[in-house]
Write a structure and sequence with these properties.
Length: 136
Amino acid sequence: MIRLSNAVELADWEVELTQIRAQGSGGQNVNKVASAVHLRFDIQRSTLPPFYKERLLALSDHRVTKDGVVIIKAQSHRTFELNRQDALDRLQALILDAVKIQKRRKPTRPTRSSQRKRVDKKTQKGKTKALRGRVI
C-alpha cells in the first residue's frame, strides 16, 4: 500500500514488481542473483482520481510510455528488498511531483538603482579596457 495523501492510496495489486538481473559489472553473484527490480504501473487501470491520471499522462518523462504505463528500474542496491523499496519510493515521488501545482510567477522589473548600477559597471569596464590599448 502506497500512501500518496490522506485521501489517495495505491493498492498493492496496482503495482507490478518483477525481479531481474542487475546490469553492469559485479562480483561472483552478478550472474546468479536477480536483485534488481522492474516496476510497472498502469495509469489508466489504477484507482487514482482523474486529476492524478491527467497530470501523470501529461508528463513528458521518459519513464512514462505512450500507452500510459510507468516503468521504473531500480538496481542501485545489492538486495531485492532495498531495490523494491527504492522503486516504490521513486514511483511515489513521480506521482507527487506530477500533481504538485506550481506557483504562478509574478513578472517583476529591475529597480531603477539596479539598472543604474549595471550601466555604471559597464562604463567602468569599458574605460578599463580602453586603457589597455597601445601606448603611443
